[in-house]
Amino acid sequence: MQVLFKTRYEDDIHFLAKTGEKIRVGLVVLLLIAAPLFLQNYYLAELGLMLVYAIAGIGLMILTGHTGQVSFGHAAFLAIGAYCHSILISHGVPFSVSVVLTVTLSGVIGMLLGRSASKMHGFYLAIATLAFLILVETFLGEWEAVTGGHAGFKVPALKLFGIPLKAMWQQYYLDLFFVFVVVLGAANLFRTPTGRSFLAVRDSELSARSLGVSVEWVKIQSFGVSAAITGLAGVLLAHHLSYLSPEVFGVLESLKLMLMIVVGGLGSILGAIFGAILISLLPIAISFLRDVLPPAVGQQAGLEPLLFGLIIVVFIVFEPQGIYGRWMKIRFFFETFPYYRKSSFVRQKSYLKTERMR
Amino acid sequence: MSAAATLSVRNLSIMFGGVHAVEDVSFDVNPGEIFAIIGPNGAGKSTIFNLISRLYEPSNGSIHYGEHDLLKLPAHKIVKTGIARTFQNIELFEQATVLQNLLVGRHSHSSGNPLTDFAFLPGVKRSELEHRRKVEDIIDLLEIAQYRDERISDLSYGARKNVELARALCAEPSLLLLDEPASGLNNEETDDVGFWLEDIKHDLGVTLVMVEHDMNLVGSIADRVMAINDGRLITIGTPEEVRENAEVQQAYLGVSP
Q1: Which of A22, A195, A200, B25 is the most exposed place for a label (fewest CB within 10 A)?
Q2: CATH code of B7's domain
Q3: Which of B124, B142, B172 is the last residue of a domain?
Q4: Which of residues 104-163 of B touch A (CB under 8 A)?
Q5: In this predicted model, what pLDDT tens digit does every residue of B150-186 receive, in sequence order?
Q6: What are A22-41's pLDDT values in tens digits?
Q7: What is the pTM of this model?
Q8: ipTM
Q9: In a domain, B89, yes or no
């Protein structure tokens, strides 16, 4: 077991305190940077998509995992990001400008939603966000003149500062760049007053308020930050999809984001990334299942949502802290070997306390 | 630290449905004193606290702290006037560490902005270190250094009580509202709390208002005591005067001696 000897306050501010963590994170970063060297285009595209979902997951994680506000409407922000960006660049707006505008728009819409949701809790909030999603989806479908309606919208080719990025590795690096920005930014957020006020609202609105945190303003901020990050994911997603249609951003997509953060582990950035990895592996599992199961079951259309639901249920019952929680336990097991006990991590607490005293 | 001021409560009333939880209560808390509020269960002690910290809206009356009219402020602005509080049923941020809890206590002194925080600009880091130094002073004062990196959900009840007191002190208040600081603590821990409260009063110059059932603690540290029953004020005086008051004895024992 490693004992940290801290000598300066900066030691608590830095992200990676232990040598082991530094090595692990360094290795992952190196692998991600080197990935185009040894991955074929198909797998590189899948990896890029995974990174995009990691960004979206972090967006939802900040809102649901860290601020305790449920949102079943986050696919709407993916849609807003994807459509707004595609429409802007198809009108000749440069990529860099479009990203800034899109992220801002998404953030502002998020803040407006947050403003109206700031007095809602639990159940009502879930319904309200779901309604928002349906609204956006319908809106995108009906506004044919601009969005192309249900016929779809062709995403223009990716161009950065006038240089076309045709190869998959170029797009991959773009995704990777934004993942670094978002992970770093989100981690920054939680070592500063803004992030701590989010956690405060999640755990006790009452005492947050008595310590000077404006609960309503925190919820608006959290919705804003979360929507902006998810909007960014939408921008990148558009280039992966290359063809947008409102149905892509439906309830199932929202459920997918929710699945990611619940299964990944609520309340940690790493959890969102674990969730993204799982989500990316699911299609492989599904195609495998289709082959293995009898045709009457395997060829059913609802296999994907069924699997989503099943995974959520299994995790809530057996590992409510998600993959991240399991990862912590395994690490703890090795760090404290042979002292780990079954009850070492017993905690009867949940992260979502939206129902609590207000 | 904001300058000490007088807390003056006038004709305070609140009704829940048809019940007068607090009815026409007036009192002053002078700067630098320890003021205890006693009364049987359901007398309205915590309700008075919740009214002062603006969690409840009074139906009548006024609350002033120095030149601040508290009833004109929303709940989250109260701490800016120098009033911090603890809760009867410990309201800590359970899934956060002790250090994070205490740093939230500094919230009223930090000017958070999601954009600068997201980028972690040098100024943000500087103010973080500054807050950390302040928090560390409180950790020293209340001797909770060994819990610094623990999660609240892993702490014992007594430790949580100390952390909650520490968190309120991190806001650098000039007036501290303590809702049953000694409830659930054993005699030794209660004595510790008594010493700390006197330290806080003398060394930090903080005015203390506490709701407390432990009459030994009240008798040993309180300068003045207010007794209430059924939401109405019975008497205000020194601990001895209040203890001898016939109406107080009746409220507690049910019979007049």
Answers
A1: A22
A2: 3.40.50.300
A3: B172
A4: 104-108, 110-114, 117-120, 124-125, 128-129, 132-133, 136, 153-154
A5: 889 888 888 899 999 999 999 999 999 999 998 888 8
A6: 899 999 999 999 999 998 99
A7: 0.90
A8: 0.90
A9: no
Residue with tokens 């004020």: B233
Residue B223 DSSP one-character state: S
In chain B, the number of structural domains is 2
Measured between CA atoms, the residue of chain A closest to residue B50 is: A210
Query: What mean pLDDT comes out for the span A327-355?
Result: 68
Residue at B217 is within a domain = yes
Same domain? B124 vs B114: yes
Q: What angle do CA B192, B196, B198 make, to 5 degrees?
A: 120
Cβ contact, residue pair B95, A206, below 8 Å: no
| Helix residue ranges, H only, chain B | 45-52, 98-105, 114-119, 122-142, 157-170, 187-203, 215-221, 239-244, 246-253
Is residue B184 located within the same domain as residue B254?
A: yes
Please give the domain boundaries of chain A with CATH numbers for all domains: 39-345 (1.10.3470)
* Nearest CA-CA partner of A165 in A100, A227, A89: A89
Instruction: Answer yes or no: is B93 within a domain.
Output: no
Long-range pairs for A2-5 at CB < 8 Å and ≥24 separation?
Answer: A2/A335
User: B131 to chain A, minimum CA–CA distance in Å?
Assistant: 10
In total, the C-beta contacts within 8 angstroms joining chain A to chain B are 124
Q: Residue B50 CB: number of other CB atoms within 10 A?
A: 24
Is residue B126, in this structure, part of any structural domain at all? Answer: yes
Across the interface, of B91, B108, B133, the residue whose CB is closest to A206 is: B91
Beta carbons of A206 and B55 less than 8 Å apart: yes
For A:177-196, CB contacts with B below 8 A are 185-186, 188-189, 191-196
Query: Could you tell me which chain B residue has the CA closest to the CA of A187?
Result: B118
Residue of A nearest to B52 (CA): A210
**Chain B residue with minimum CA distance to A229:** B118
Shared-domain flag, residues B29 and B144: no
Instruction: Give yes or no: residues B116 and B240 share one domain.
Output: no
Choose from A15, A118, A192 for mutation: most chain B CBs within 10 A.
A192
Structure tokens at A178: 């934004």
**Residues B185 and B136 reside in one and the same domain:** no
